[in-house]
Amino acid sequence: MLSPTPAVRAAISGLVVVTVIAVVGAALHLQGIQSQAADALAASLGTKAGTVATALQTSGPRVGLATFATPEQPGALVMYDRAGRVVEATDAEVGALADWFRTVDALPGTVAVVDTEAGAYALAASSLPGGGRLVAVAPTPDHLPDGELLRTVVAAVALWGLLVGVFIVMTWYTGPRTANQLALLGERMAQGDADGDALIRHSAVWLGALAEAFQPVADRFRQLRLHARDVDQHVAALYQINPHYVVLCTQDGEIVEANPAFYAVTGLPIAAVRGGRIEALQETFPIGPLMELGKRSLKEASAITGIEYAIIDRDDETRPVEVSLRGFTLDGRPMVLFQATDQSRQKTLERRVNAFSDTLDLMVDQRVHQLTAGQQTLKRVLDAAGVIVASFDAGGATSRWSGGAVALTGQPLSAVPHFAAATQVLGLSPTERTAFTQWFWSLSQEPFVGRHGVIGRDGATRTRQIIWQRVDADMAGRSDLRTLIGVEVPAYVEMPAYGGDGDARSLRLGV
Questions:
Q1: Both 409 and 464 in a single domain?
Q2: CA-CA distance, 300 to 293, in Å (whole number)?
Q3: Based on the domain organization, do 139 and 233 belong to the same domain?
Q4: End of a domain among 183, 208, 241?
Q5: What strand order describes the sheet that includes 111-116?
Q6: Average pLDDT in the 71-85 region?
Q7: How far apart are alpha carbons 502 and 166 in whole angstroms?
Q8: Distance of CA 370 to the CA centre of its chain
Q9: One domain, residues 476 and 452
Q10: CB-based contacts of 195: which residues, under 8 Å, 6+ apart?
Q11: What is this structure's pTM?
Q12: What are the residue boundaries of the PAS domain, all occurrences included (predicted)?
């Protein structure tokens, strides 16, 4: 496993640097060996030139240069006179390659390696009697000494292989180490028992940038921990202040928790309930028969309410309760939450309300009978006296049409559903009808005197003189009701007539 940890990055960088250094060093080493070989050749040529020059001085011109040429020694000997002309050469081709006489004059010394058009040559010069010069020339070797290249390559490969082995070992070591560090970091963060930021900073010493990848996870875990803490506090508060009796248990019958109201009403100790079995509640609140409903609630993901049940309190009295339950899953375990609402007070109130309702119904029936009897008597008296009574609401709808009105107009209530229809059947002239309507809807408290042409049963039209008074209802909730009360006045009684100028002449009757 290759992980971009600081250790692995350092190993990779070191491997690259050392590889480059090894290659450059090997090249420089081989170049140095080749340069040393050329220098050694030039030195041997210088020795040879000096030896041959001494021998020539001793032996004289009888001895030629060919005497000193040997196959073991590479190169050629070239003899020049004082004018720089070639006198003799052991290898005419090499002697003709360059003007070695003047080349030697241009050198700072008598032994050197020079580059010519034909290649690199090592040369050495020695003076001869009479101003001449002996030059020994040999081409520099174009290959390394035997085995030197192989030794150099083997050494470089061995060094590189050693570094690769170190890199592989470090990679193998840092791979499992990194995996273990990542697993440990993830496990510690999942446990939530330490600050995620602190864990990341601590792990970054070994993991480097890999540890920073856990920062969003740490932030999310922090938010989830805060949310879980708030939810726990919220649920705990609901348990504490809930006045209903709450029991939380698993679907296999283990009691997880109950709220204070449940302990208070049953008198059971916490140790006997929390962590126990539902059989411990058999004498007080037997919820075993309700477990099937809990499974159904979990399957349907909905609450079940309105179950009439009972609970035995600490005084061994039976209290009627209404049970609601909800199945859900908590930490992978199916749970059931029971809530029992005490119905004892409600039942008592219902009994009292029912008893009071019965008494009230009796009283109302008696009172209605009394009022109805009185109203029927009054109604008969008014109808017999020919008093006309008609009531209308704020919209003009007819709500009452007395017997006197029926006797006067010959029309029942169904024929006069509205005030406009009532004015039509009262037999008023168009002018009086307009004045009557304006008076009815005004705020005037004065009576209105009208003359009505009423068709009798024999078909003849008779004019009747009626004085009207409007009364506004003062009953609660009926402030919009207006009632007309009309009394017929005999024709021989002089009443103010209705004027043709459009104004209704009224008479205060003291009513």
A1: yes
A2: 10
A3: no
A4: 241
A5: 86-89, 76-80, 133-139, 119-127, 111-116
A6: 72
A7: 126
A8: 73
A9: yes
A10: none
A11: 0.37
A12: 245-342
∠ Cα 371 365 485 (to 5°): 25
Residue 246 CB partners (closer than 8 Å, separation 6+): 239, 258, 259, 261, 262, 337, 338, 339, 340
> Which of 125, 148, 171 is the endpoint of a domain?
148
Query: Using CA atoms, how far apart are residues 509 and 507, in angstroms rounded to an integer?
Result: 6
Residue 426 falls inside a structural domain: yes
Contacts of 401 (CB under 8 A, 6+ apart): 390, 412, 413, 416, 422
CB atoms within 10 A of CB 509: 12
Nearest alpha-carbon partner for 291 in 315, 323, 266, 259: 323
Bridge partners, residue 329, by sequence: 334
Overall domain count for the chain:
4
Please answer whether residues 340 and 323 qualify as being in contact, where contact means their C-beta atoms are separated by less than 8 angstroms. yes
Question: What amino acid is encoded at 178 in this protein?
Answer: T
| CATH label of the domain that carries residue 331 | 3.30.450.20
Residue 161 lies in a domain: no
Residue 255 has a CB neighbour count (10 Å cut-off) of: 20
Tell me if 189 sits within 8 A of 214, measured CB to CB.
yes
| Sequence letter at residue 106 | A
- Say if strands 461-472 and 482-489 run parallel, antiparallel, or are unpaired: antiparallel
Asked if 394 and 302 sit in the same domain, the reply is: no
Q: What is the pLDDT of residues 307-341, one digit of tens each?
A: 999 999 999 999 999 999 999 998 889 999 999 99
Q: What CA–CA distances, in Å, run from 113 to 49, 94, 352, 404?
A: 15, 15, 134, 157
Q: Are residues 426 and 447 in the same domain?
A: yes
Nearest to 247 by CA among 219, 213, 281, 215: 281
Sign of the alpha-carbon torsion through 275, 279, 280, 283: positive
Question: Is 427 part of any domain?
Answer: yes
Distance from C-alpha of 75 to C-alpha of 41, rounded to nearest angstrom: 10
CA–CA distance, 112 with 124 (Å, rounded to integer) = 7
Residues 319, 392, single domain; the answer is no
* Pair (253, 201) in one structural domain: no
Q: Which amino acid is at 268?
A: L
Instruction: Report which listed range, 65-69, 137-141, 496-500, is most confident.
Output: 137-141
Residue carrying the six token digits 């008609």 = 390
Question: C-alpha distances in angstroms, 414 versus 374, 384, 417, 422?
Answer: 25, 22, 6, 11
Give the tens place of pLDDT for each residue, 282-307.
999 999 999 999 999 999 999 999 99
Phi first, then psi: give them for residue 211, nearest 5 degrees.
-65, -30
CA distances from 276 to 137, 311, 316 (A): 112, 19, 22
E-strand stretches of 242-282: 245-250, 255-258
What is the span of the domain harbouring residue 272? 243-342
DSSP 325-344: EEEEEETTEEEEEEEEEE-H
Question: Could you tell me if residue 182 is inside a domain?
Answer: no
